[in-house]
Amino acid sequence: MRRGGLAASVALALALLCVASGEARARQLVLVGPLGPLGIETREAMRVRRWLIAALGAVPGQRVRGSRRVLRAVQRRGIDCSAQPECLGIVARKLRGQLIVAGDVGSVGSGYVLYLRLVDAHGKQVRTISGVVKSGRGARSQMRSLSYRLLAPKHYTGTLRVEVDVKGAYVYVDGERRAQVAKKNEPLRIELVAGAHALRVTHDRHRDFVRFVRVGFQKTRRVKVALSELAVQSTEMRLRSGVRVLRSDELPWYRRWWAVATAGVIVAAATTVIVALIPRAVSRDAEVQLGRR
Fold first, then answer.
1. How far is Cα 191 from Cα 181, in angstroms, rounded to an integer?
2. Is-same-fold flag (25-155; 157-225)?
3. Confidence band of 269 (pLDDT split at 50, 70, 90)
4. Which of 11, 91, 99, 268 has the most CB atoms around it within 10 Å of its CB?
5. Which of 122, 130, 37, 128 is nearest to 87 (CA)?
6. What architecture (CATH level 2) is domain 25-155?
């Protein structure tokens, strides 16, 4: 029994080890190179680099390595290596990384501005981004936002929650129809790339609602829409919507038949009088004989 239990424990340990190694292989290894200081001290740049390493490690599917070995590997290849994608690619291949991050950091106001580049192991620049990280509260969330923009831009999203008080209205975002209101004031959730977007809500019997909204990263922006009904509607729209058309005696006086007919008679009579009073000119084709009497 003891031998059987020992064998089972060993098998379980090996299975867990295989699962862990498989998950590690599934995640790509991201190396973090140096951040060049722009007008700040080196120790400040190193502190911001530690913030960046922690934020990159929180992005799902990534293994991040920012050890001194990575710094030394970049520094050995010259002071300009961190600005050259080909050189960074060589470092990534040497350290068996799939991606490598490098860039510069400077001071702006009460925070820092970062210029980051992402390069793959073939020396190809995948993307570049820039952003500001303020010191103090909010620095962690701002650095996380930069990390998602750099490594996982498809997941750099937020949610727009729209509540419209008119059933059947259409919701457009950046010119694209995204939803139709099935029930009055029913919340509609639309996932969008974090940033500014143009929101428009339309209905054939109401004025358009137009507004620019900013959706935060991993946040929900709520917008309540109250549409204003149009004062005048065409007969076709009334019939289509089921609204009763006014009877003749319900119309204003200037739209009733006798008012329209009287106005027509007056216009016709005025036209006849004007034509009759115009003097007739001599025909150009008439023959006139000139000579002495």
1. 16
2. no
3. confident
4. 91
5. 122
6. 3-Layer(aba) Sandwich (3.40)
Q: What is the pLDDT of residues 116-135, one digit of tens each?
A: 999 999 999 999 999 999 98
Counting other chains too, the contacts that 51-57 makes at CB distance below 8 Å and 24 or more residues apart are 51/133, 51/139, 51/140, 51/143, 52/101, 52/114, 52/116, 52/143, 52/146, 52/147, 54/143, 55/140, 55/143, 55/144, 55/146, 55/147, 56/30, 56/32, 56/101, 56/147, 56/150, 56/151
What length is written for the chain?
A: 293
**C-alpha closest to that of 108 among 35, 36, 39:** 39
CB 99 within 8 A of CB 90: no
Sign of CA dihedral 80, 85, 89, 92: positive
What is the amino acid identity at position 292? Answer: R
pLDDT digits (tens, 9 = 90+) for 10-20: 455 554 444 34
- Domain borders along the chain are 25-155, 157-225
d(CA 63, CA 102): 16
Any idea which architecture 157-225 has in CATH?
A: Sandwich (2.60)
pLDDT surpasses 60 at 92: yes
Q: Is 201 helix (H, G, I), strand (E, B) or coil?
A: strand
- Give CA–CA dist 55/76, Å, rounded: 26
How far apart, in whole angstroms, are the C-alpha atoms of residue 188 and residue 173?
12
Residue 8 vs residue 117, higher pLDDT: 117
